[in-house]
Design goal:
The chain is an alpha/beta fold and about 375 residues long. It folds into 2 domains: about 110 residues, Rossmann fold (3-Layer(aba) Sandwich), CATH 3.40.50.720; about 210 residues, 2-Layer Sandwich (Dihydrodipicolinate Reductase, domain 2), CATH 3.30.360. It contains 11 helices and 15 strands. The strands form 2 sheets. The protein has a 9-stranded mixed β-sheet. It has a 6-stranded parallel β-sheet with strand order 3-2-1-4-5-6, sandwiched between helices. Helix 5 runs antiparallel to helix 11 and helix 8 crosses helix 11.
Length: about 375
């Protein structure tokens, strides 16, 4: 195929992560951007020399766009995905895929009925360490997976947040916004098919009426189990356990003594702060989304700064990982799927299954019971 012409719906923080690496995706061309904010459109047009639209629908109708990356607020993911699909555009959507399973169904159906590809974006499944762990597990070298443990501590709830980001009803809070990352990791490593979930979520910051921590136990169909825990209140950072390397693959500088936030901030203030964020100049390592340890019948796997550590009867072995492409990985997967005429991964069914786990976590905590799942999808590799 010729170049894949991309339009980005929503020019906020997520779009900046995409725009900074789009050059890494061969055969992809930035064609357009859409947002309701005039200042965002003007800045985008000036910097990228691409078409701008103040309505996502108009961009979806444009014949100059082949695919749309949905980076709008979570409550609009379903609406904008269906809109793009009905205009024949392939879709990449940010996590969480949607706010409800009904919305996810609409998205999957729209893509199938219109013959376009739907790719779940912003997934840790794209991270080379997660992929390499899965490859080792699938090889059978270490036997079956027994237990997957993943944990994260950071200041998620102490970063500047607008009201919708901390409104659970609108897809905000830690479970909706960070739960998909951990869930994708453990589902990929465990094969995808989670049987049930038991979880407890917490709202322990009096200034934010949303989830700031959770602990969950996932029971897989084949007998494996995964434990996920996350604390986003900011008193401790998991990078103290990961060689000071954070989610972006850079060494982080931990600070202390900052005044704690008293609540969400205005949208305009958030956009101004995000625009000033600059990447680290430090050498890039592999990305760490917390600490993940996989126990198998004949060994254990965990991440190292630039690859993996395997622990077996013979001792510790270091295994390299492939190169990382950041947010360009989604674009590379979509274009490869089109060129090779094959399904993409993670697709809409995978995104729905991950959303089902996150919704089950919230429900399990509220009802204080185990929740059985019905819409899980297997990992294809």
């Amino acid at each position: 195929m010729k170049r894949l012409r991309l339009g980005i719906a929503g020019l906020g923080a997520a779009s900046r992560q995409i725009l900074s690496v789009i050059h890494k995706a061969s055969g992809v061309e930035l064609a357009a951007g859409a947002d309701v904010r005039t200042e965002a459109l003007e800045a985008f047009a000036e910097k990228h020399r691409a078409a701008v639209f103040d309505d996502v629908a108009d961009m979806c109708r444009s014949e100059a766009v082949d695919a749309v990356w949905i980076a709008t607020p979570n409550v609009f993911h379903a609406e904008h995905t269906v809109m793009a699909a009905e205009h024949g555009k392939h879709v990449i959507t940010e996590k969480p895929m949607a706010v409800s399973l009904e919305e996810a169904d609409r998205m999957v159906t729209a893509a199938a009925c219109n013959g376009v590809k739907l790719l779940q974006g912003h997934s840790k499944v794209y991270d080379p360490p997660v992929r390499r762990m899965r490859e080792i597990i699938s090889s059978g070298r270490l036997g079956r997976v027994i237990h997957i443990q993943t944990m994260n501590y950071n200041n998620w709830l102490q970063r500047p947040r607008i009201a919708s980001e901390v409104d659970t009803e609108k897809g905000g809070g830690l479970v909706y916004r960070q739960g998909p990352h951990q869930t994708d990791i453990v589902r990929c490593l465990g094969g995808g098919l989670v049987r049930s979930v038991r979880a407890v979520t917490g709202r322990w910051d009096p200034n934010f009426d949303t989830e700031g921590n959770f602990a969950a136990m996932l029971d897989f169909e084949d007998g494996a189990v995964a434990s996920m825990s996350f604390n986003g209140y900011g008193y401790f950072d998991v990078t103290e356990l990961t060689w000071d390397i954070g989610e972006g693959g850079y060494r982080v500088e931990r600070r202390g003594g900052e005044e704690r936030l008293a609540g969400p901030i205005a949208a305009q203030e958030k956009y101004q702060l995000a625009a000033k964020t600059a990447p680290s100049g430090d050498r890039m390592h592999q990305p760490f989304f917390g600490l993940t340890i996989v126990s198998c019948e004949r060994g254990v796997i965990r991440q190292s700064p630039d690859g993996l550590y395997l622990y077996t009867q013979e001792g510790r072995e270091q295994v390299p990982c492939g190169p990382r492409y950041g947010r360009a990985a989604e674009l590379m997967e979509l274009r490869a799927g089109l060129v090779e005429e094959r399904p993409v991964f993670p697709d809409g069914s995978w995104g729905k299954a991950t959303l089902e786990v996150c919704l089950a976590m919230l429900r399990s905590s509220k009802e204080q019971r185990e929740i059985r799942l019905e819409h899980q999808a297997p990992c294809p590799f």
